[in-house]
Amino acid sequence: VLPVMIGGLRRMDYKAAQEVDYYIANSTAVQARIKRYYNRDSTVIYPPIETERFKAPHKAEDYYLIVGRQVAYKRLDLAVDAFNQLGLKLKVAGTGEEVPKQQARAKDNIEFLGRVSDEELAKLYAGAKAFIFPPEEDFGIVPVEAMSAGCPVIAYGKGGALDYIIEGKTGIFFKEQTPEALAAAVKRFEGMKFDDKALRQQAKSFDDAVFKRKIKAFVDSHQKTTD
Questions:
Q1: Predicted TM-score of the model (pTM)
Q2: Cα–Cα distance between 126 and 57 in angstroms, integer?
Q3: Rounded distance, CA 89 to CA 112, Å?
Q4: CA angle at residue 140 from 159 to 187, to 5 degrees?
């Protein structure tokens, strides 16, 4: 039935989109999507990140880290395959439908921590060599949290990650969503050094105080226009 209905649904969606007064996008990737599908301009205001929660000194230990709700599109399977090949330690914090599936496939170097407290999460960020981010997200809050703790990010090079990761300064990208590409990026990362201060400084530009200031300025300016 859907192929028959999809054209009409798209026209209805497009018409409704034209009735919106203003659009705010949470990343340049979403901004481009709004323009492509709705032919509407938008203002990018990034989501608020509580960077002050992650002040512990970053002292890298011998593990990499993944954090989040583990559903299929987060691509935990890709990370498991890559670290099965590498034999390096990977800690996975969080629950979700993918955890039991991937836990059954993972080798002993991959540890599944389940749900962790805020205090435990801060410690994990502070001790990780790098944060692994395999999905394509509209934005992606957890990598910026990791950067707030001085932890660099190894991310798939599409979506919101392009707005906050600076190649070679706050992390590195891999260009294909394959275990081989991620494993190659991890190997490349092993020979690199990152400045904690630069990571924290970049993360601060996404702080919740910045969000509040920008969203208020946006609303105030458009109220004046409307008035």
A1: 0.91
A2: 6
A3: 11
A4: 75
